[in-house]
Amino acid sequence: MIEKMVLNLVSQMESKRMIDKAVSDQYEYALVTLIEHTITVGTMLLIGLIFNQFIPTVCFLVFFLSLRKRTGGYHADKFWQCYLVTVIIYISIIQAATVLSETPIAVYVMLFLAVLVIGVIGTVNHPNMDMDKDELQEAKKAARLCVLMEASIIVALIALKINELYVSYMSLAVILCASLLCVAKIMKQEVKAR
Description:
This protein is 77% helix and 0% strand. It is an all-alpha fold. It has 2 domains: 1-50; 54-186, no CATH class. Helix 3 packs parallel to helix 7 (164-186). The chain is globular and about 60 Å long.
């Protein structure tokens, strides 16, 4: 449905000579991606509001989206699959964050392991990205720096004795990124760098 709307919009833009036909594929991809991203993030914020976890949800999204952009990881084939899995995972994260905030040692151990996984793997070269060796090395470096920065922020917040619930949400963002990296590796959802 989203793709149909975007195709119609881009077609109208072409007919009104707002864009060249040569770049219409790029416009279609960018608009579909933007709309799907907006729907997904908007839904997560709404779920956070419904569960009275809006600020922790924002913390989760900042950490998750910053890291996910650099690490990559598992991708569903269709938007509806991605959307459904995202909603289910996020509701599970809300439940888990509450429980894990009461047992911070478990969170710290999982966070440590997640940082190690991201440190070792760095980035998955997804077929849609198809990075060359230099691009892949830069992506891995960016992912490692980002996870170290996020882990440092979490450690600082722990030292400052910030509410454990916020620490749990931020930690679960890193843990989820590491998990999605592992799933992509297991499912061989990557290409070798050229």
